[in-house]
Amino acid sequence: MLRVEGSIKRGGLFGFPGTAETASAELSVTDCDILIPAAVENQITSRNADRLKAQILCEGANGPTTAEADDILADKRVFVIPDILANSGGVTVSYFEWVQDRQGYFWPESEVNNQLDHTMRTSFAEVLQAAKTHDVSDRIAAYMLAIDRVAYTLRQRGIYA
Question: Of 12, 45, 141, 147, which has the highest C-beta tally within 10 A?
Fold first, then answer.
């Protein structure tokens, strides 16, 4: 376990058994299999991307990776799960809540979890397939799918819907 320097002020893991103090700048280059920057944007930059040791970067924060770092990570063949996919569970469940409110029928928690699981797995598979089909990064594939879906919906609804 690691502790971010200064996290005592924010009630972090200070004093948790088995932890070691580590400066926040070093966390992103710590030896690990999966890195999940989950709090602040622009944490993976051209200054540290080349030293990243993780093979998978799962973006839990909004915009934790700069465009320059994206290129470096691609060259290093780091598998990046882009933020708009990795942290979309909350907004997806918010949509489910909206649907339930509109219907006046509320799902049990297990149904919400099943719907979320299905949506996330399907979205992940679609992003991977689009990336492969168009020979682009997962991030670009996710953007392509998002834009296509918005455009499709606008065409279906019409301009005045």
Answer: 141
